[in-house]
Amino acid sequence: MRKEQDELGERELPDEALYGLQSLRAEENFSLAYRKTNLRLIRAMVTIKKAAALAYGKIAESDGQDPDGAKNGRTEKSRAIVEACDRVLAGEAEDAFIVDALQGGAGTSTNMNVNEVIANLALKILGKAPGAYDIVHPLDDVNRGQSTNDVYPTALRIAAIELLRDLSDGCAKLQEALQKRENEFADIKKLGRTELQDAVPITLGAEFGAYAQAIGRDRWRLYKIEERLRQVNLGGAAVGLSDKLTKRYRFEVIEKLRELSGMGLAAAEYPMDLTQNNDVFVEVSGLLKSLGVNLTKIANDLRLLSSGPHGGLGEIRLAPMQKGSTIMPGKVNPVIPEMIIQVGIKVAANDFAVTAAAARGELELNAFSPIIADALLESLSLLCRAVFLFRTRCVETLSPNRERCAELLARSYAFAASYGEKLGYDRVSAIIAENGGDPEKIQKALDAECTKYHPS
Length: 456
Fold this sequence. Notes:
There is one protein chain. The relative contact order is 0.10. The chain has helices at 21-29, 39-62, 70-89, 108-125, 138-142, 148-184, 204-229, 244-261, 271-276, 279-305, 335-359, 369-395, 402-410, 420-423, 425-434, 439-453, and strands at residues 2-6, 9-13, 189-194, 197-203, 231-232, 266-267, 316-317, 399-400. It is built from 16 helices and 8 strands. The strands form 4 sheets. Strands 1-2 form a two-stranded antiparallel sheet. The protein starts with a strand and ends with a helix. The protein is mainly α and 456 residues long. It is elongated and about 100 Å long.
């Protein structure tokens, strides 16, 4: 065991533990047994640490410092820090990120955890033991030029953009799958329904075309929102202000971060705004909720259209995915649409969490950014998978029941609406009532009425 000490006292940690004392305290303080901080957020923070180390290395070189480690070995430390970051980004040390996702302190504990892991990995790279912070310090070296208040929201933006790109691409493929079904089902006439009651004739293809339009709007909205997330407050330090020295670093670190992330990130014109306010995350979450709403509506429609198969609508057939009952042999349930509906509910719940947390910021900082990050990234991850599964296990595998569509259409008097222009609404209603709702009798009576009063 090794010992680490801070102003609160001394504690023991396992010799080879890559986390440090601050991570241990946070693990104990926030021991909710909920889940650990999202690894996408961790990796984005590590990318920022790497960018900072590279930025300071470039500044040192341009200032004429010895690239082999002058000025207290700062450049040598930077190289070790960069390699440590690379190892984490390659998947090493994931079990060292031990802090719960929901935590006090605006994400400081997650930042501390990341700083300690990178510092201890860098120490091992330099041939030193973990905890030798006089050589590589988690705050003085790994966190140099940074604050949780600019690192955390920048990392969340990077992680969100990565997932948004995946989700937008997934929505595009789902839209294409729905459009393909639209074309394939274009000739299948069926009964339209409003408020679950018989309406006018439509085609099955038109129904799927409407679904495609809704997902197309979601795709476009998600594609466009990335622009809002590209502005970052990195280099703004604690409250979004920077002096003349950090402006140089700020330029370099954001340039390096652009290269490492492959994203068109830009320094915020007013960094204090992004440090104080989280409305952009509320906006993103709201668009995710919109997608969740559309997916829920489409999924529920497919449940209705496939209901039965003999006692319900049965106008489409969903591919069987698994047994549907432990007591009723042969029963198959619409499990994929039901899963999608639950994802939509979860995304809406997460949207409330993001909204409530963003509204509770005070003055120069929001202390509740951890729940914003956890809820937003969960919604993004859930939707990425849900859209893929909905497309591949439901939309692309379902089939139409042409005979059932024709049967239900023939049994309705939906055609009667087309006689309204010639005979008037009231007369058509009277004919329907006079013939007891029998489609065949109604058709004959309407035709006779038209011939009588409108022979042309």
